[in-house]
Amino acid sequence: MNSAAENLCLSLLSNCRTLRNLKQIHAFVYKSGLETDPLISAKILLISAVQISDAIDYARRLFIHNPNPDVFMYNTLIRGESESDSPNNSVSSFARMLRESYSPPDSFSFAFALKAAANLRCLKTGFQLHCQAMVRGLDTHLFVGTTLVSMYGECGFVVFARKVFDEMNEPNVVAWNAIITAYFRGNDLSGADRLFGLIPCRDLTTWNVMLAGHTKAGDLERAKGLFLRMPSRDDVSWSTMIVGFARNGYFDEALRVFRELVGSGNRSNEVSLTGVLSACAQAGAFEFGKILHAFIEKMGFAWISSVNNALLDTYSKCGNVLMARLVFERMPGKKSIVSWTSMIAGLAMQGYGEEAIKLFHKMEESGTRPDEITFISILYACSHAGLLERGHEIFSKMTGIYNIEPTIEHYGCMVDLYGRAG
Asked: Where are the PPR repeats (predicted)?
């Protein structure tokens, strides 16, 4: 064993943040003859499955090529897939573990698979996993029990969630937070409040769960009272209140809390900014959006892609295409598909069909591949501008060149286009 090479690989992996870097390190691992090292293999799988957001496919390929994956490796893949855009793959990996692995699933295996069922909102899968856990005597594990509470809550079965919770021997604060969240999911605000009063030990997450539940339900007075009583606050607390006020149309209150956040010395974050900008976009609050834009420029958030996209969307939906275009043109680095699509949609909504088509072609020239949502926006632009030939050409390109299967939204745009053309 080349310990110097192994230590170097582990050091490189500890600082790995992108899939590109991971592939480079992985190539070095092969070159160093360490591809069978169990510690390095497990670390590479963990990073690709869990720590890098766009690397789950790479993690899956790594796993498939491992002849004898152990419980840790199965759990890592199941966990990563449960948090991905396709959590159904996590359930499939768990089923494969039951069929093929020499090592039986443990409490972590069940917890990660249950999280996938929760993300899928699939009660049938969650119930089957619950039965499997009971057969193996793992349903009494605190981690599994807490995840069961969350799963039943996400699926809308608060009664089942409460039954699991009541059968716990000594639920910790995480379990309490899970059952309170389940009550909010079931729109039982008074039940959530009662549990909040019973909880023996609250943490910051408990308070934030209460804030989120009441703001989403529109009970802003209760949320405000909780916010004032909080022993401490973090970014989530501030963001929840700002976004809660803004989404419910109380923009003066949202701005007041935002200014209080700035004045408190706490730094606002990406979530608070994108959330409140999204609320401005939905409500058409142009003036509030301008105030936030100035703050974004002043505090150095203008380089963050998600903030720029939210700002662009706000100006577009408020009808100010000029400002939206300015934000778009000043975006640093390579523009994402979200940025291109947001700008095309903004032009389409305001009736600038020809401009939207020009921007669409410019996007293609940049090497950015349009997706289903991009085509909905550009077909909408063609429809509302009466550009029949352009719309037909773009629809043909969508299916013929980009191999995108049309959805009902795409067909709806085409029907509208032909209808307007007579």
From this structure: 70-104, 203-233, 234-268, 336-370
CA distance 79 to 91: 10
Contact status, residue 49 vs residue 59, Cβ threshold 8 Å:
yes
pLDDT at 231 over 90: yes
User: Within a 10 A sphere around the Cβ of 304, how many other Cβ atoms?
Assistant: 17
Tell me the C-alpha distance between 237 and 208, whole Å: 6
First to last CA, the chain: 76
CA distance 192 to 184: 6
Query: H-type helices in 248-304, by residue range?
Result: 251-263, 270-283, 286-299
Phi, psi dihedrals of residue 87, rounded to the nearest 5°: -65, -15
Q: Please spell the DSSP secondary structure of 312-342, one letter per residue.
A: HHHHHHTT-HHHHHHHHHT--SSPPHHHHHH
Neighbours of 6 (CB within 10 A): 16
Mean pLDDT of the chain: 92
For the stretch 271-298, pLDDT in tens is 778 878 887 887 788 888 898 899 888 8
Contacts of 111 (CB under 8 A, 6+ apart): 143, 144, 146, 147
CB 369 within 8 A of CB 337: yes
Distance CA 27, CA 13 (A): 12
**pLDDT tens digits, residue range 50-108?**
999 889 999 999 999 988 899 999 999 999 999 998 999 999 999 999 998 888 999 99
DSSP of 185-229, one letter per residue?
HTT-HHHHHHHHHH-SS--HHHHHHHHHHHHHTT-HHHHHHHHHH
CATH architecture of 334-421: Alpha Horseshoe (1.25)
Residue-wise pLDDT for 20-29, tens only, equals 999 999 999 9
| Domain spans, the chain | 233-312, 334-421
pLDDT in tens, 110-169: 999 999 999 999 999 999 999 999 999 999 999 999 999 999 999 999 999 999 999 999
- Which pLDDT belongs to residue 84? 94
Q: Evaluate whether 352 touches 381 at the Cβ level (below 8 Å).
A: yes
* Residue positions counted in the chain: 422
Q: Are 207 and 241 in contact (CB under 8 A)?
A: no
Closest CA to 231 of 259, 260, 258, 202: 202
Tokens 């950015």 sit at which residue? 368
* Three-class secondary structure of residue 155 per DSSP: coil
DSSP code of residue 320: -
